[in-house]
Amino acid sequence: MHTPVTSYAEAPTNTITASNGVAFVYRELGPKGGIPVVLFVHLAATLDYWDPLIVDAIAKDRHVIAFDQRGVGATAGEVPDTVEAMAEDAYAFITALGFDQVDVFSFSLGGMVAQALIAAHPDLVRRLVLTGTGPKGGKDIDKVAGPTYLDILRATLTRSDPREFLFFNRDKVGKAAAKAYVERTTGARTENRDAPMKLRGFQTQLKAIKKWGRSTPHDLSKLTQPTLIANGDNDRMVPSVLSEDMHRRIPGSELVIYPDSGHGGVFQFHERFAPLAAAFLNR
């Protein structure tokens, strides 16, 4: 009997060509069968940017699939300049794998893509986890480029990973959590790593987020999927108040805000969040 891969660090990298002609690169782990959990990643991130402690906790009982969007990592093509186009690519990828229903775990830009996917294909997603993200037309989402470029500069000057500044508070606890998180995402998998994000693709993603922030809001009262929303209380990239805004507008949604933490609050509090997310997705 074939034993499923249970560690994200050991998940093989596969490719599938979808109906739109894009050859999507992806990794999967956990026991196959039933509805899979598809991971939607953040700005400037490839397959290697997922926190293995959170992925492995979900994959203990579930088939988990992570993928590179068009133009990201080793997936060919150009990054789309709208979140809605990214959502259609995600739909093409999921249907190419033969699934007509999935659960979604998303972070940051990935959460915006997940919302756009549900708006266009409401029956595709059964359960939804939105972390560090905001709604279409959300206040100040269109200003994300400013802090992003500033923190990349600060990281460059200190020879640090930009995520240490972008995702975490710059206090003693935040700095320690940042180092641990970067080590988990860079040290767990040393071979067969993904291709890096291209600068042009990153800039296009920022433009797409800006458009998302300036667009007419979705009617989130139509979102019927059980939804878990989580963030830190000091998110400088996608303001934490937007998590509360989505919670108010999505019927029956659950909200968790972690104290003294930023955009990457779910990574800082992974010991509390990973089992919570896994249990929610297994309900």
Question: What is the fold's blueprint, element by element?
Answer:
Layout: E1 13-17, E2 23-29, E3 37-40, H1 52-59, E4 64-67, H2 83-96, E5 102-107, H3 109-120, E6 125-131, H4 145-157, H5 162-166, H6 172-187, H7 199-213, E7 227-232, H8 241-249, E8 254-258, H9 265-268, H10 270-282
Parallel strand pairs: 3-4, 3-5, 5-6, 6-7, 7-8
Antiparallel strand pairs: 1-2, 2-4
Please report the total strand number as a whole number: 8
Strand content: 15-25%
Cα radius of gyration in angstroms: 17 Å
Ranges where pLDDT stays below 50 over 5 or more residues in a row are none
Q: What order do the SSEs take from the amino end to the carboxyl end, as H and E?
A: EEEHEHEHEHHHHEHEHH
Notes on the protein architecture:
The protein has an eight-stranded mixed sheet with strand order 1-2-4-3-5-6-7-8, sandwiched between helices. It is globular and about 45 Å long. It is an alpha/beta fold. 39% of the residues lie in helices and 16% in strands. The protein has a single domain (8-282), classed as Alpha/Beta hydrolase fold, catalytic domain (Rossmann fold, 3-Layer(aba) Sandwich). Helix 3 links the parallel strand 5 and strand 6. The two termini are 27 Å apart. It holds the Pfam family Abhydrolase_1.
Write out key terms for the chains shown:
alpha/beta, Rossmann fold, 8-stranded mixed beta sheet, 10 helices, 39% helix
Briefly characterize the structure.
The chain has 283 residues and is α/β, with parallel strands linked by helices.
